[in-house]
């Protein structure tokens, strides 16, 4: 089944961080086409003034509404949260898309690849994993830094079965 991935990028995200991302994603996921649209401005309606963070679910809805076909991924530079957590690296909706904040990713392209891979894993039906795996839940930057950048055998199998 052919899958199109549309990547929306906030203008404050350095091209240095995303320049090899499309190649990585083509190798990891059954994606047939990737379109990158840069300079997508974040909607002020998703900003939470009291928290001084963006609501990640609101940004996901925004990204999905600006996507005509396929899966959408929004990469942005500001800090984000969801209800009940101090911050998130990103959020995803199965079959729809995901958002990833680079705010806590230390300007590291490898760290961005890891978090985008994690969120797209959710988009393609994977849950959090307890094995050494990119799908391990991270509650801190330290935990995210330590987790594997690859899928474990179990998650790899599940991903292949989804396609």
Write the layout of secondary structure elements.
Elements: E1 4-9, H1 15-18, H2 21-28, E2 33-38, E3 47-48, E4 53-55, H3 56-65, E5 71-76, E6 80-81, E7 90-93, E8 97-101, H4 109-123, H5 141-146, H6 153-161
Parallel strand pairs: 1-2, 1-5, 4-6, 5-8
Antiparallel strand pairs: 3-4, 7-8
Helix pairs in contact: 2-4
Describe it.
The strands form 2 sheets. A 5-stranded mixed β-sheet has the order 2-1-5-8-7, sandwiched between helices. Strands 3-4-6 form a 3-stranded mixed β-sheet. It has 163 residues and is of the alpha/beta class. It contains 6 helices and 8 strands; from the N terminus they run βααβββαββββααα. Helix 2 (21-28) crosses helix 4 (109-123). It has helices at 15-18, 21-28, 56-65, 109-123, 141-146, 153-161; strands at 4-9, 33-38, 47-48, 53-55, 71-76, 80-81, 90-93, 97-101. The protein has a single domain (4-161), classed as Collagenase (Catalytic Domain). A hairpin with a 3-residue loop joins strand 7 and strand 8.
Structural features:
five-stranded mixed sheet; single chain; 163 residues; Collagenase (Catalytic Domain); alpha/beta; globular; 32% helix
Shape: globular
- Oligomer state equals single chain
Return the CATH architecture.
3-Layer(aba) Sandwich
Helix count from the secondary structure assignment: 6
Strand order of the largest sheet: 2-1-5-8-7
Number of strands: 8
Largest sheet: 5 strands, mixed
- Please name the CATH topology: Collagenase (Catalytic Domain)
Total domains, how many? 1
Helix fraction, binned, reads 25-40%
Structural class: alpha/beta
- Would you tell me the overall average pLDDT? 92
